[in-house]
User: What shape does this take?
Amino acid sequence: MSTHTPDSTKAAKTNVSDGFTSEQIKNLSSVLNALAADVFALYLKTKNFHWHMSGPHFRDYHLMLDEHSDQIFATTDAIAERARKIGGTTLRSIGHIGRLQRIEDNDADFVTPLDMLAELRDDNKQLTANLRETHDLCDEHGDVATTSLIEVWIDEAERRTWFLFEASRGVGEPA
Assistant: This one.
């Protein structure tokens, strides 16, 4: 009489909740963690510039950056929870964020308002590119839920880029 034992190799490679292999979980959570680090870095930079804004358009820029930072921050939890839902782990500390982020910090004592807007515009463009790369990998692994979320985040980042571009244009420049 033979005793049936589960194939431990197969069991170890499969996440019961979503059916991703351990390699897929590793790849997906890795790109999601890098994305989460980028989003945290962009959130803090946007808040930094919000707090240190000055000049004749202070109120408009200050409020716009506050709106942007709220939107950016809202994505952090969704990204981290998605990594956990697929069976991975997520960010654990500021140091972890610093090791993974691709959005550069700005620790300058003073940045002009137009330079702030231009830097954030470029950072949002970079985030959009990073989102698209993450979307492609998630699509390759059949992670439909994450690709769906990322499509919304791409639209939000493109909108922020547009607002920052338009807010930094000179008066009378052609559209």
